[in-house]
Every structure is written in C-alpha cells, then in structure tokens.
Amino acid sequence: MSTNTRSRASTVLRSPVGDERTRFSSQAPQILACLDEDMNRLEVTRHARAIAKALDLQLGFAQIVETAPHGVLPADPIEWNLRFTECRDGIGELIGEASETVSDVLPVVLPGTAHERLIDWAEGHRGSVLVLARHSGRGPHSGLGTTADRLLKSGAASMLLLPSGRERKCSAEYRRLLVPLDGSPNSESVLPVVTRLAQSLEAQVILAHIVSPTAELPSLETQAGSNRSNTSARARNYLETWKLRLLRQGIDATVYFGTDSETCERLNLIASRLEIDLVVVASHGQTNLASAPYGSVAGALAKSAPCPTFIVQPDLRIPLAKPGRSGFMFEALAAETEFAS
C-alpha cells in the first residue's frame, strides 16, 4: 500500500450507524474487538465485552474490509458498497447483543490491510486493548496467524489473544486468573489491571513465579544446598507478600512456586491443571529490552497458552478509583492500590 493511500484511508472511520465521517484522532482508550469473517467472530465479541465491562472501558467493534493489491479499491463501486453494507449489518447485529451489558458501543469499518489499519487505530487510541483470535479458522491452527503476529510485534497496544474456536471454547467469565511474576517491577505492573478484573468479576488470582535452575546454581559446590534453600525461600516470600496485598484488597489469592528451565511450558501446564480462564502477563519482564515489543515469556504464552492471554503494555490506561480520573497503569499502581510500599 502506498504511503499516500494509506494516510488517506486512516483518516476516516466508517460506521454502520449515524455519521460515517468520524474523524480519526487521539481519543480515549477503548477495548476494540477485531472481527474477522470466520468462526472466531462470536468468541472475540464475548471476550471483548467481558473485558470492557470489567475494566470500565468503552467497547468498539472493528471489521477490516481488505482492499485490492497496492491499496487500490475494487473497480466496481457496486461490489465495494455491497461489502461495506454486509460489514455494517454484521456489526450492527453484534452491537445489539453487546448493548445489553455494555453501553455506548462504537462500530468501526476500515478499508485496507488488517494489521496496518489496526496499528493505525491503536496509535490514535493510545492505551487501548485489541481483542482477537490467535489465528483464523482457516489454515494451520498453531502459533499466531499473520495479523496477530504483526500486531504483537508492533507493540502498538495491549492485546487479548484467544485460542481459535477449533482449539478450545473458552469461558469469558474469568473466574481464575493466572499472573506470572518474575520479581521485576515490569511484571508487577499488571497488578492494578488484575485487581480491577478480580474485584469486578469476583475472580481468584493465582500468582506464579517460576525460577530457572540455573539461577539457583552457586559458585561453590559446598554452598549448593544453602543457596537453593535461600533462593526458594526468597521466591516464596516474594509471592506471599503480593498475595497478602491482594487479600487486603478483598481478593481471593493463592500462589504457585516452581523450578523449571522451561518457564512457559510450566505456566501452560499450570493453566491446564488449574483450569485457568485468563492469563494476565506484562509485555516485558526482568530483561526489559526496550528494542523488543514483548519479552520471551509473553511471546511464548501468546502462541501456546491453553486459554486467553492478556498481554499488557505499560501504556494501558484504566480508570482510577476517583470519578473523572484515568491514568497510566504505573500511576494506578501507586494511586489506586496499596501495592506501592
């Protein structure tokens, strides 16, 4: 797609209701359900609605109408109008269902390439969340599809990634939340979001800390037993401290500590055995490479977790406790909870 064509396309949102020339500008954060014409459409709708209600954020439904190669619109205007009409009608039906639990739902129909248009939208709505299936109902059913992969690599927004409907139908009630922590402030930055979700949904929170065996190896063999014991004790105390702080917020919390060289595989195993409904993980953990859009654990969970995975970027904005205020996740950490010591 040429630069000029893409720039013009990104300035207008097309809506199935009301004025279809809503300007694309920097707006309040939203939950955007990214719909495709496949079997995942209803799953994406259900989970986007649940997250929007729990976080008290506006909900939008987005349908991308793919253009012809090089960004050229179809030559037949009748065909093009029919495609837009079908999208508008389809979103209108979904909005009718969503409006029962979430008010003020925004419809969005955009022409262009899916990942490019959604990145454009995310850049105009900083601090938002994109909700989509890991891959479509077509083709291979493992890892990430092209759109999900490119959106994740862009780091443009927080993402809620859902297993394909062919893998597993997942509950959107989120009764059990798994939260991986690695001892870094980055991993802990998801806790305001976890707190909001848990309180809104009356969910249980399982805090997990997986330590690599190599982190426990001492420099002297004679100190091996003592060193391992101290490392394990520190890790358990770390989890218990956060558990206590969640309990003070009225949240049912428990902890899981383990040692494994394959952190993601162990987390996936925990998610399966404990019937986790949602994994909430920070985009970056201990390594915090500024040049990378996400860390190794977040990236691995995005591709293989057996349940929906909420990858939270630092710019995610959630409403604060005081009416009329909102703030970045790090601000919420200090202002809304007792987590800051």
Describe this entry's structure for a reader:
By secondary structure, this protein is of the alpha/beta class. The protein has two domains: 31-162, Rossmann fold (3-Layer(aba) Sandwich); 176-216 and 226-308, 3-Layer(aba) Sandwich (Rossmann fold). The chain contains eleven helices and 14 strands. Strands 5-4-3-6-7-12-11-8-9-10 form a ten-stranded mixed sheet, sandwiched between helices. Strands 1-2 form a two-stranded antiparallel ribbon. It has a two-stranded antiparallel ribbon with strand order 13-14. A hairpin with an 8-residue loop joins strand 1 and strand 2. Helix 2 crosses helix 7, helix 4 (114-124) runs parallel beside helix 5 (146-154) and helix 9 crosses helix 10 (296-304). The longest helix is centred in the C-terminal third of the chain and has 25 residues, at 224-248. The termini are far apart. Mean pLDDT is 76; it is low at 1-26, 216-224 and 322-341. InterPro entries: Rossmann-like_a/b/a_fold (IPR014729), Universal_stress_UspA (IPR006015), UspA (IPR006016). Residues 1-13 have a biased composition (Polar residues). Pfam families: Usp (PF00582). Belongs to the universal stress protein A family. Residues 1-20 are annotated as: Disordered.
The low-confidence parts are 1-26, 216-224, 322-341
So what's the overall shape?
elongated
CATH-defined superfamily of the largest domain: HUPs
Radius of gyration over C-alpha positions, nearest whole angstrom: 21 Å
- The H/E string reads HEEEHEHEHEHEEHHEHEHEHEEEH
- Strand percentage lies at 15-25%
Structural class by helix and strand composition? alpha/beta
Sheet with the most strands: spatial strand order: 5-4-3-6-7-12-11-8-9-10
**Any idea how many domains?**
2
What is the mean predicted local confidence, pLDDT? 76
How many individual β-strands? 14
Distance between the termini: 50 Å
- Major β-sheet annotation: 10 strands, mixed
Number of helices: 11
Share of helix, binned: 25-40%
> What's the architecture of the largest domain, going by CATH?
3-Layer(aba) Sandwich
CATH topology of the largest domain: Rossmann fold
CATH class of the largest domain: Alpha Beta
Biased composition (Polar residues): 1-13
Pfam families: Usp (PF00582)
Region (Disordered): 1-20
Family: Belongs to the universal stress protein A family.
